[in-house]
Amino acid sequence: xxxxxxxxxxxxxxxxxxxxxxxxxxxxxxxxxxxxxxxxxxxxxxxxxxxxxxxxxxxxxxxxxxxxxxxxxxxxxxxxxxxxxxxxxxxxxxxxxxxxxxxxxxxxxxxxxxxxxxxxxxxxxxxxxxxxxxxxxxxxxxxxxxxxxxxxxxxxxxxxxxxxxxxxxxxxxxxxxxxxxxxxxxxxxxxxxxxxxxxxxxxxxxxxxxxxxxxxxxxxxxxxxxxxxxxxxxxxxxxxxxxxxxxxxxxxxxxxxxxxxxxxxxxxxxxxxxxxxxxxxxxxxxxxxxxxxxxxxxxx
Length: 300
Prior knowledge:
There is one protein chain. The protein is of the alpha/beta class and 300 residues long. The chain folds into three domains: 1-85; 87-161, Roll (Ubiquitin-like (UB roll)); 166-299, Rossmann fold. The chain is built from six helices and twelve strands. The chain has a nine-stranded mixed sheet with strand order 6-5-4-7-8-9-10-11-12, covered by helices on one side. The chain has a three-stranded mixed sheet with strand order 1-3-2, covered by helices on one side. Helix 5 (213-228) runs parallel beside helix 6 (265-282). It is elongated, with a radius of gyration of 49 Å. The model is unreliable at 1-13 (pLDDT under 50).
């Protein structure tokens, strides 16, 4: 009984192994199929990534190449323009024949300025204030400089000049002074009738602002107010060691009128005119009239 039972068990287990083997084979085939499919799809994706990266690299190389070409062309254009500007042909335009005779002098000043500032040969880089100061320090009679370019390598400098308000003498030097108070030596206009004799001892040189606008305005108002009263100022004197007092010499009068810049010029002139009438009526011969104090006149 026992022997038969054992034999039946062996037969049953061998019979059961058949389906198991079939399932294992199916699973192995299925696994192999899934594995092969995964590898092939991975390779396909990898190939696509490689193609895209190659395409991007080609685009980057093309962009870099085009950028180099663009930079080279831009550099070439700049060099061409620079060559034209470095060989800039400059002409000077002045308002009259007298100043035109000094055109070579003004041209040299402009060339020297460009030599010290090459970039300013290009008009967009021109520093107008620096150019004005350069001309003021070298040729102070020039009031304004305007640069106009015509095509490549052509430029014209249009100049205007200072018109003198008075002749200003300091020591042995004679200068002209314009309405801005700037002194200069070369004058292209008619000599002014008004002369200012500077005895203050302050140092003076061409191109210097010898007096401020307020002081010049004071002188102009005083001269104008004297003229309204039919009195002509022949000379103005700045006394020694002072910058607040002014002496006005009047034509036909043997004395000066002492005034101060701290009071209104018109009021002082009106005060002086009344005092002159008083002196003329009494035929006095003073050395000067002093109208610096309001409502009071002193004479000696």
